[in-house]
Design goal:
Chain lengths: 114, 114
Amino acid sequence: DAGVTQSPTHLIKTRGQQVTLRCSPKSGHDTVSWYQQALGQGPQFIFQYYEEEERQRGNFPDRFSGHQFPNYSSELNVNALLLGDSALYLCASSLWRGNTDTQYFGPGTRLTVL
Amino acid sequence: AQTVTQSQPEMSVQEAETVTLSCTYDTSESDYYLFWYKQPPSRQMILVIRQEAYKQQNATENRFSVNFQKAAKSFSLKISDSQLGDAAMYFCAYNTINDYKLSFGAGTTVTVRA
C-alpha cells in the first residue's frame, strides 16, 4: 500500500522564480492538503483540494496556488519566490468524509530560496 | 481562531522510562479531533495517536497513550518504556468537522538517553 509521495525531495531556487511541487496521495484517498513548515516551527495550512477544487485556504498570498488532477494527485505552485518562502512543504492526504478522517503526510519537499 | 499550545520546547528521557508531553488547545467547538504526530530528523510526519472529542475513553496505541481532559482543554501524550527510536519532534494538532485544516502546536523535541 503506497503512502503519500512527494517530489522533488529538495529544490533550490532564486528570488523571483517560480516553483512547482508535486504530491501523490495515499492509495484510496481523494483529498490533498498542503502545509508549509518553517524551520523549528509547526506546519501552517496552505490549502486543501477535493474534487479538483480548492475547499479551504489558509492565510497565504495569491502567489501560492494549487491544482488537483482527476487521479487525485496535486501540485503546489509558488510564483515570485521570496527568501521567506524557504521551508519544508508537506502534503497530506485523507478521505473526504466530512473532515472526520485523519490526514497522512508525505516526506516533504525542502525548498531553499537564495 | 484555533490555537494549540505546547509549553515544553524540549524534553529528555532515559531509555525505558516514561515521559509526558503537554498540550492545551482553545476552541468553542464541541465536536473536534486531536492528534499527536511525530517528526523524526528524516522529516516524515507520522501519526502517533488520534482522539475524538466525543469519546471519553483515552486513546492508546501500544506504548503511547493520551490523557484527554475536555473541560480543561488538555491533551497530553505519555510515552512509556521509551526507546531510542522515539527521539523526534512531537506535534499536537487539532481540527473540527467545520474546519478542514489541522492546526499545529510549536512542537516538543524529545531526546532519549541511552
